[in-house]
Amino acid sequence: MKYRLHYFCCIAFLILFSSSGCTLIKASLRQGPTEPVAKIEDISIPAVKGNILVRVYTPQGNGPFPILVYIHGGGWIGGSIKSQDKICRYLSNKVTCIVVSVKYRLAPKHKFPIPVEDCYAATMWVSKNAQSINGDPARIAIGGPSAGGNLSAAVCLMAKDRGGPPIIFQLLVIPSTNLSSLDTESYRLYATGHELTKKDVEICRALYLRNIDDRFNPYASPLLAKNHRNLPPALVITGEYDVARDDGKAYAECLKQAGVRARYYCFKGMGHFGVYWTSASDAVQSALDEAVSALREAFSKNHRWHIWPLITRNFTVIILPQSAEAAEKQIANL
Asked: What's the whole-model pTM score?
């Protein structure tokens, strides 16, 4: 009992007083005013070996609304739906969508793959119960910052591997996409002195994963998946001075090479938590504007962000994320 108490006290100390923890606390205080939304509801939903909570934000209007499944960050060991309340309200209002914020279970008590399985279960629940929350099951996106970006990318891989639920867009903000190696240029350049440190990531990784083998599991390291084809279109946002910058860039490039429509933005002069939907700087607002614009576009009924895998006469799979007319024209030109 004394050992377990000491163990969790050490984790609490890490979260509160490490460089990343202090920034997280400050960040939550800088998120700006709390915007009103039409409705907020907490719902308990089934997950693997237990239940989890989701918080549903509904904007003003009649609906049915598109839905963003929002996965909070916190290094897989911290964070909460409460800490991301303001950004969920903001996105719900600006995008005019339902935001379902997921309270997934945290490491180290619940190690990999439980957090990602919880997020997958929440996305499946959203798909099956969209109408009951006045949502549109044909317009479901997923996204989040930091560990939430990692989990969002992993859920998209799971959905492809398991045949659903259908996800039309992924918003990956400062995501870690390769936990097998922390030796990219950005990890070397910004290992210390730039908010989130390499040591912070090493500690969080050790607490999240069960063993070294888990580092190579694509649901922990989405960049290592053998096949990225037919994944949802993506917007990947990073900060110039973030240790995970190159993870995000590499994942966006990997998606593009696989034929997935992906956009990548790296915001100059910003570290990990600068893009964590926190301070009211112009750069952060630009990041928010990019996210809002991309979600609106993805959710637009007149814009086909959906993935259309088509087999051509030479058996090449192509991706056509626009209109049926454009698809037919492109096929005719093959």
From this structure: 0.83
